[in-house]
Design a protein that fits this description.
The protein is an alpha+beta fold. The strands form five sheets. It has a six-stranded mixed beta sheet with strand order 1-2-7-3-8-16, sandwiched between helices. A four-stranded antiparallel beta sheet has the order 11-12-10-13, with helices on one face.
Length: 446
Amino acid sequence: MGEGKTDAGVEAAADPRRAERVRRIGEAVDASRDDLVAFLQELVRTPSVTGEEGACQAVVAVQMRGLGLETEVWEPDPAALAPHAEHVGTVADFAGRPNVVGTLRGAGDAGRGGTGRSLILNAHIDTVETGDPARWTHPPFAAEVADGKLWGRGSCDMKGGLATHLFALAAVRHAGLLPRGDVLVESVVSEEDGGAGAAATILRGYVADAAIITEPTRLALIPAQGGSLVFRLHVPGKSAHACVRNEGASAIEAFGHLHRGLLAYEARRNAAIDHPLYAPMANKIPISIGTIRGGAWPSSVPEWLVAEGRVGMVPGEEVATFRREVLDEVARIAAEDPWLRDHPPTVEWFGGQFAPAEVPADAPIARAITGAHAAVAGSAPPVEGATYGADMRHFLHLAGIPCVMYGAGDVRVAHFTDEHLDLDDLVTATKTIAVTIADWCGVVEA
């Protein structure tokens, strides 16, 4: 897509009117700061844990219609997603869980050599659970503003990113400009458990020349996302009365051996990976155990244990090949233990598998964001890789749409007690996305 069109970054840099556009866009964002914060507060105050996104999507739809966007609200079709279950997981029913997409149609050529490039601005509306609310300094759904930050579940991951998109597009229009190409703002469900919502937009025909996802990147440009495969490890034991525990074989103790082996495997992988965007990271491919269940009675030796976790990947690694490698590694670790050697554990893959994805760091959409951030902040953004899986893989692998991530917020406080978002960074991200819209799509005076 977009063949034959000029590079947005080159065109913008050569346009003597660009500095004036940047100034007007910046002033429009600054003028809307209070409304931007208030809208983000409304989103945070409307819980949208994965599986229960409907109420918050209704808020989004109202906002999109208020901006004059062609707004479609629809529930993804499980049958259409079924062929992609390995990548998005299996969801039987999306009732009450709609995607929302708002489209601003491009103004056309206006004497400038054809319609502008189209652009998808994507964000997911679903969040993880809060955990124990008593552990939060600020209540998780109060959306309190303190110390220059907005606190609450989803503020960082990634309702702030959705607010960025909507107010960036509004700022372009308030600056008296109309994009020449179509701009699509997507609020999607089910990202946290596989990305069925984003995949559903593509299958429904929502495509463009490029896509930007405003995941919390600390205002860094992310052209590479890691992968993560979710697994269930079944560890056998042998039951016995606790008073004669040596007659049994503890599945919990056996798991301890496996876990130590997996961490050693993680260390070897980290030492061997030489991807340049991941070189500065201490742990490029985290292996993490998230849940453990085992045993049936306090005074019995546990005869079973099930552990669920994830293993990380970097761009360039293939899911099928890496799965076989993990299975071989688990078998090798088990062979070192006298019990597990004869009673091997099994690995089950489940849920949506997050394949890694990457575009060149100098891809046109990456250059457009770099130029826009530099115009807003005075210097180019850092260029980094992300260790987490995200929806950008769907745009790249399912549709061939160049996609990058850039946004306010720090992933280290996502999925965390006292999740928060710095409001100055939110404003910077909004200005950057707005300038990117103008540079990438081209604009005409309204």
